[in-house]
Amino acid sequence: MQWTDRIRQVKIILVLAAIIIAVASLIVSNNLVKKLADEEHNKMEVWAEAMRSLNKADENTDLNLVLKVINENNTIPVIVTDSKRNVQIYRNVNLKGVNYEDSLKNAGSISEKLLNEGKFIRIYLDDSLKNDYINVCYDDSVILKRLSTYPYIQLGVVMLFVVVAIFALLTSKKAEQNKVWVGLSKETAHQLGTPISSLMAWTEILKENYPDDELIPEMDKDVKRLELIAERFSKIGSLPEPVPSSLMDVMTHVIDYMDRRTSSKVTFIKEFPENDITVRINSSLFEWVIENLCKNAVDAMEGCGTITLHVEETASRVIIEVTDTGKGIKKKNIRNVFKPGFTTKKRGWGLGLSLAKRIVEEYHKGRIFVKNSEIGKGTTFRIELTKRA
């Protein structure tokens, strides 16, 4: 549990760091764009003053400096209109029109938009006449527009790269985990093989020497049980072919086994339909899933309570629910219960539910999840299997 919490904390720290970097980048970029916009506005004020000087020029006015200022603007789109909003001149503006009249109309609509947005400088040609003026309408330059959108494009590319990198890391991690699972399972099955064979031989000797002993058949069942467990471990990593099986027989077999090996204070309740249900499963692996759920239920109830196994069939699915009257699962832990290594017990590796999820989803193409859980009242795990021909 501490390991899982540590991983979650690392993820949160990484996400927060990414957000801080993104916000800082946006703030710096926006400040640069604002400074550039202010600089362009100052340039347009100088350009507008040059236009005023040009309009008020007489034969004694030196127009060299004025024309130089006007002609040096090669980046900022500008449209000059009179007091009646008629377009006089325009510069650095991309107009859509097949002829001069269409272009002029397009320039007029653009100037109206800029006027409404407040992007203009009004220059009075005669201080005594308030209706004698020109409007110098201007827009952001191409460079400024690109700089305004560039940070967002940059962040989008970075985020895409981060997502791809995380996905690749998770895929690689999952592949490594699968190799570890398979190797551990195969080695466990191999190591169990020799002592199980010896136990089987000793059981046969005991049967011959003490044929009337009532405990020997139970010992034989446990030895066969160990053999079944070794078989299950050997199948992890392979793709055992599911075959049509009686779900009621599988469930009943698990309940009988668990009932004999748990406290008398634990009660098993079967809620099965009257008709038998046939599903395509690998019986030994699916029994393992139900056993894990029942064992977890017994642990959650601390050896005293009720476990209800409910089975129902719909048109497209078979549903199995295992409900206990235990201590329940905290909401923050529900999404972690199927993760390898997660456990709330003092003893245990936290692998049971992870194995159950792999068996249900990878081998049987079904779903397993926590349907509901309430602290102090119990938990319901639900398995959904799709009917297949």
From TrEMBL:
Segments traversing the membrane: 12-33, 152-170
Entry-linked CDD domains: HisKA
Keywords assigned by UniProt, alphabetized: ATP-binding, Kinase, Membrane, Nucleotide-binding, Phosphoprotein, Transferase, Transmembrane, Transmembrane helix, Two-component regulatory system
Enzyme Commission code(s) on record: 2.7.13.3
Database matches in InterPro entries: HATPase_C_sf, HATPase_dom, His_kinase_dom, HisK_dim/P_dom, Sig_transdc_His_kin-like_C
Coiled-coil features, chain-numbered ranges: none
Residues of the Histidine kinase domain: 187-389
Gene3D superfamilies tied to this protein: Histidine kinase-like ATPase, C-terminal domain
Keyword Lipid metabolism: no
Keyword Cytoplasm: no
Catalysis: reaction(s): ATP + protein L-histidine = ADP + protein N-phospho-L-histidine
GO molecular function per UniProt: ATP binding; phosphorelay sensor kinase activity
PANTHER family in alphabetical order: PEROXIDE STRESS-ACTIVATED HISTIDINE KINASE MAK3, SENSOR HISTIDINE KINASE
The protein, known as: histidine kinase
Source organism of this protein record: Xylanibacter rarus
